[in-house]
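Anyone up for a design puzzle?
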């Protein structure tokens, strides 16, 4: 009985479609794009990419699978759940480097090497980045951008109120400035947020105290996490925490950034997605400098997009990936996102003064990866370090933190 009704309804639909002659165009196919870009400058970047996708890919419709939470803290958990029930989005955001390797090893992403050939990507992406995306001779994602992690953002008016008009030349000078701000009555001289943002701060201090080469060695097994330079870095990191807001563990990065915008903080260490976000939040007068003591080190990370194994709309996803990797797509996306194009052939003219400085630095700087943003660490390693930092934030014992950091490295370093 039910079957008869279904067949009758289908016959009716077919008849009306043929009869009108107007409804021959199939409805657009959807491409579900999974990111953690849900607000502010991050959403502005995504929106710019979607506008280009709409123009490049007629017959395809963008479906927003974004899950809010800086650095993907919530999105990555949701992605794991979806993968487990074989319900992947068509494409998802993944950091180039160790984090991408997690998905490759789990068989969750498709080989995109052929697209690199047909879209000519090998000629327009930096060789080092292609190396970071290549595993056993194959490439599994297309990069959208390069972000820099080791940047301090400032509220110049707050600093001027404490007599600070130039960037500190090294870490001791930075700590002096924090003390000056505190003495001038600034509530939280250094705006701080939850676990992964504290990891970013610790990494910046490690670059200063170990130098870029030994810092990079922390993630390859070449540098010992139990050594005296790491002890010094943990102590310096602890000093910096002492100049931050006490509610740090409850704030995501945009809420910590709000302290800066509202004049309750003088500085925030954050990746350069902050540049676009500060502009999106009507605070274009920000200042910036590389974290004190990092010299010309550029701590990089790159957002890239994949084709999920089992994606339901392969044609549409190909078109999304082509837009992401195109010169125009990268220009529009990055102008809005605060990052710089991964491609080397995008003109710098439309970019902000901050972004133009980052483009110049990217070419000449010493590059090191980021654990908090997946270029240096696997997700398991990153989670272990974030957990150690959460404990440290509530019961600060430097020796326990250093031992936990060393333990995570022993457990998760890839041979
Ligand atoms: C990073 C990501 C950036 C930005 C940031 C804050 O992991 O690569 O694009 O979104 O998190 O959420």
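Challenge accepted. My sequence:
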């Amino acid at each position: 009985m039910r079957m008869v009704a279904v067949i009758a309804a289908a016959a009716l639909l077919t008849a009306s479609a043929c009869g009108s002659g107007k409804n021959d165009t199939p409805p657009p196919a959807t491409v579900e794009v999974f990111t953690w870009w849900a607000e502010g400058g991050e959403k502005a970047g995504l929106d710019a990419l979607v506008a280009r996708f709409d123009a490049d890919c007629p017959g395809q419709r963008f479906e927003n699978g974004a899950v809010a939470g800086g650095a993907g803290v919530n999105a990555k958990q949701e992605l794991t759940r979806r993968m487990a029930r074989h319900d992947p989005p068509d494409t998802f955001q993944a950091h180039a480097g160790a984090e991408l390797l997690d998905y490759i090893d789990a068989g969750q992403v498709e080989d995109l090497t052929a697209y690199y050939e047909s879209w000519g990507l090998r000629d327009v992406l930096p060789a080092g980045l292609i190396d970071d995306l290549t595993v056993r001779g194959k490439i599994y994602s297309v990069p959208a951008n390069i972000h820099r992690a080791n940047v301090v953002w400032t509220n110049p008016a707050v600093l001027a109120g404490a007599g600070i008009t130039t960037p500190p030349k090294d870490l001791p000078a930075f700590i002096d400035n924090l003390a000056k701000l505190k003495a001038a009555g600034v509530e939280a001289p250094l705006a701080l947020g939850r676990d992964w943002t504290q990891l970013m701060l610790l990494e910046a201090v490690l670059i200063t105290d170990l130098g870029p080469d030994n810092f990079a060695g922390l993630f390859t097994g070449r540098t010992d996490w139990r050594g005296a330079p790491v002890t010094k870095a943990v102590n310096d990191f602890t000093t910096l925490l002492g100049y931050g807001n006490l509610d740090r563990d409850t704030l995501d990065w945009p809420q910590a950034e709000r302290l800066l915008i509202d004049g309750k903080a003088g500085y925030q260490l954050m990746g350069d997605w902050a540049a676009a976000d500060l502009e999106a939040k009507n605070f274009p007068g920000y200042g910036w400098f590389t974290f004190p003591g990092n010299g010309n080190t550029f701590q990089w990370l790159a957002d890239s997009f994949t084709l999920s194994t089992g994606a339901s709309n392969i044609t549409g996803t190909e078109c999304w990936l082509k837009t992401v990797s195109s010169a125009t797509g990268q220009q529009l996306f990055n102008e809005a996102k605060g990052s710089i194009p991964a491609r080397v052939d995008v003109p710098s003219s439309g970019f902000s003064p901050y972004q133009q400085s980052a483009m110049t630095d990217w070419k000449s700087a010493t590059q090191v990866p980021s654990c908090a943003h997946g270029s240096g660490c696997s997700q398991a390693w990153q989670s272990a370090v974030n957990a150690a930092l959460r404990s440290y934030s509530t019961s600060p014992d430097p020796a326990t933190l250093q031992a936990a950091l060393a333990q995570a490295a022993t457990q998760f370093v890839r041979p």
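A detail worth pointing out: Residues 36-37, 42, 70-72, 95, 147, 271, 273, 301, 303, 373 surround beta-D-galactopyranose (CB under 6 Å).
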